[in-house]
Amino acid sequence: MLNYLARRLAWMVPTLLGITLVTFLAVQLSPGDPLAADAEHSGEQSGAADPRTLARAEHLLDEPLWKQYLHFLGPFDLSPRGCAWFGGDGSEPWHGLLAGDLGQEFRRPGVAVADSIAECLAITAPLGLAALVLMMVLGVPLGVWSALRRGAWSDRSLRAVLMALHSLPGFWLGLLFVLGCGATGLAWLPVYGLADLRAAEFGPAARLFDRLQHLVLPLATLVLPGLAYVARQTRSAVLEVLEQDFVRAARARGLPERTVLARHVLRNVLVPCVTLTGTLLPALLGGSVIVETIFGIPGLGQYALDAMLARDYGAILGVTTVSAVITLCAILVADLACAWIDPRIRHG
Which CATH superfamily is domain 126-298 in? Predict the structure, then answer.
């Protein structure tokens, strides 16, 4: 297992570097300038140095692309205030991903990208984990139930519903919930933010109930399409296992159907279910952009969208890097769990 873990960790490093390089090039090739000049700079009237010119120098926007990328990777700061080895004044020698510093935002000087991402991740991570748990808790039993009733009218009906849910675009489903359940529709649930504006005046129980009310529609928007996907994949996996020779042999020995299902079928379905868990997390991170935008949730997805609209290079690279690390770690954990369940995988 340790050798398997070492091999997977070794592959994560070039993968992460490749993701950061592709993102950096994509951002640089997109049109526009994050620090485009206004009609009139404040420094032009006072005689002081133009603050935008200082910002361009600090973020190395006029330097070659290779230097900008190495500045982001670190661990040395290549700006004028950076490491003295590279022409800086030495006041801030360390910078970059390898130094654990994602830099500062372009649009809000003095605000660290890492701090903003941590604040947003504290909102997005619980929402995504709750959606993932609901997908698996509801989707796996539905898939097993459907597979055991293959060909029955209940199976066909369930598959039609799951296909419809899986086909719904996330943004359309979210807008449908807003129109139908919000103030413009039935006014059943709140559709904006994570808490009422007067939540500070509520008691503990009322605040908890208010938070749960605000989470219902965002969770439903995330869970329903993913739930359908998990159920369909689980159904396919169960049907595949049911056709295996060892299942037929177990039945031929006279074992009860419940024993065959528990010991032979569900145990072999664990591997694809665990793999699904690892691959759904990136989808939830991507889906959070839509959900958080529609429902006004100040999470990582909303922060990423604002950064892209403002062409904030540092924030975009920071969000991409953090998302990539989370995704790679989730896939690694899923692969380790699969290798523990099925020892043949680690020797493959």
Answer: MetI-like (1.10.3720.10)
